[in-house]
Every structure is written in C-alpha cells, then in structure tokens.
Amino acid sequence: MGSGEATTIQDQAPRLLAHIAGYASHRTIAMGLRAGLIEALAGAEEGASSDELAEQLDLDPYYVDVWCRSALGAELCHREGDRYVLAPHMDTLLLDPSSPAYVGGVFLVYEQREMFDRFEQVFGSGERLWWDETSPEWIAGVSGTGRPFYTRLIPGGLSQVPGLDEQLADGGRIVDTACGAGHGLLRLAEHYPECELVGVDGDAYSIQLAEKRLSEAGIADRVELHVRPLEDLDLDDPATVIVNNISMHECRDIDRATRQIHDALEPGGWFVVSDFPYPDTDEGLASVPGRIMTGIQFFEAQIDDQLLPRSAYDDLLTRHGFTELGSAELTPVHALTWGRRP
Ligand SMILES: C[S@@+](CC[C@H](N)C(=O)[O-])C[C@H]1O[C@@H](n2cnc3c(N)ncnc32)[C@H](O)[C@@H]1O
What we know:
Structural class: alpha/beta
Bound molecules: S-adenosylmethionine
Mean pLDDT: 97
CATH superfamily of the largest domain: Vaccinia Virus protein VP39
Low-confidence stretches: none
CATH architecture of the largest domain: 3-Layer(aba) Sandwich
Helix content: 40-55%
C-alpha cells in the first residue's frame, strides 16, 4: 500500500477473520484426532462417506457430516462423490509420531488446560507452576510433541556437528539433559549402540516414565537416570556429547546450568542445544512459525521462562568458553546450536 493511502476496515477485517477460520480448523483437527475420524479416513483407501465414518466410529451421522465439511474446508481431505478422501501426507503429519514431520501432537497439546486456560485463569495473579503440578496427560502430550524434535536431532541433526558421527561410532558417553519421558534416550540408544547413555531431568514423574520406556525396550541397563536440576548436574564421568531438547530455555539459572554442562564434558566434548528459535523481530513474531511459538510461550510463561532466539545460545556458549560454535535450522520451529569444550 502506498504511504498516502489510509488503511480501511475492509483491509483489516480479513486479518481477524483468518484467525477465526484457523481456530475452526484447529478445533476440527483436534476433534478429528481424538474421535478417530482422521485415523478412519487414513484407513479408507477409497475414502469414506460421512455415514460410513459415523457407523464405523459409533458417532452421530449428522454431527460427522458437520465435521467432514469442516475438515474439507481445512484442506484435510477432499471429496469424490459422497466420499471424503484424506489429503496426501496428512496421515504422516497428523498420525505418525515417529515421523520427523509429525505435528499431530501440537493440536492436542494446544487444547490442554495448561496451555491457554490456566494462563487466563491466573492472568491477574501471575501464579506460576512447575512440571510436578502439571497433569500426566500434559506430560504425555509434551513428550509427544518433543518426539519429532528428537527424531530430527538424532541422528540427522547431530551428524551436522563436525566429526561427531565418527566420534560416537567408536563409543562414548551421551547425556540427555532434561530428558523428559525418555524418547530421546531410546533413539540415542538405537542410533549409537556403542555409547553409554545418561538421562537427567528435574521432574521425578518424567524420569519414572523414561525408566518404564527404557525397561520395556530392554535397554534399561545401558542408561543411567538421575532426578536432579541441571543447575546441579554434577556427573561423575565426563561426557562426549551433551544434548538438550526443547528445554534449555527452561533453566532456572541458565548460566549455572551451562557451567555445569561445560564441566561435565570431556575436553573436546560437544554441547548441542536443540530448541525453538523464538523470533527476535516483529516480522518473525507475525510469521506462521512465530505465531506457533508465541502460542507455546503461554505455557512457558507459567513455568516462569521465556523461549529464546537462536542467537541467544551463541552468546550463552561463548560466555562459557565453548568454541567451534555452529548452528543449523532443521525446520522453521527447530534450530540447533552447538559448541565444543576446548
Ligand atoms: C518441554 S519438556 C522436554 C522434555 C524432553 N527433552 C522432550 O523433548 O520430550 C522440558 C523438560 O525439562 C525439564 N526441566 C526444565 N528445567 C529443568 C532444570 N532446570 N533442570 C532439570 N530439568 C529441567 C522438565 O522437567 C521437563 O521434563
């Protein structure tokens, strides 16, 4: 628009209407995931009519018809005659937690109480919370959304760190700091069979989940687990590499935690931070990835932290004497920053 032209109501209204439309599509997808509608569509190669979906899932036919048309509007599916056919790759994106492209979990996490509802309830008091006060469903949801971050990090992201693949092929000690429910440890064990593994998290319930996951996979004896804050990491044996997945921004004292991480590495060992690259410009905040991250920040604020721009990790690692810094953008909401202990 030229500088002399005034912005009109007609210019501005579509911005708001797009948000309402996005909300309707979001609710449609989350509901479709919970009710099994998207899974049923994924299983129907020739597509399915809304009546067939209703019968299969024991849902009300009229309501399913309403859902199907909204799913069509959301470009989740298209119609062939009276049959709804899931759009390409939606099954992977929404239903496959093992895919690096999985985003289905984010829809569900966004609708949990801890995300926006609790924030609004305590808007006045600003009452904070910690992980041990969140629900098991929340921990499960977060670990589901963290999983594709681990899938991209291990081994693809780590292989971008110079020489690390070769180092780990011969064995070594890998520490997952803030390991949560253990998806990362499981993947590390699978991809670096010669390495010893350590998982540390400040939340006892998450460590219990990790323990269970690792036992079920039959690899509990390869992994040492600790419930402790990263600010008091204090590990006995030096690590070849320390990773942190979508958690570094949560440290109560990020400098103290980084000092501990530095000291826990062997000389030449690497620290790899895998995190959301929070936008540091107004344009970035207004972008689609930026808006998703501003959404996530509603939870982060409640546990008293702030997502950080990727460059903040360059400053952090430099401040603590790390060298050979590098970085990579894995997706618009996922970046790595690494540095080496001299
Ligand atoms: C967003 S979750 C991510 C968990 C896991 N890395 C994943 O991607 O699934 C953040 C985790 O960091 C842990 N955490 C946050 N701050 C911590 C700290 N200062 N010390 C230890 N653990 C911490 C929490 O308990 C929680 O399990």
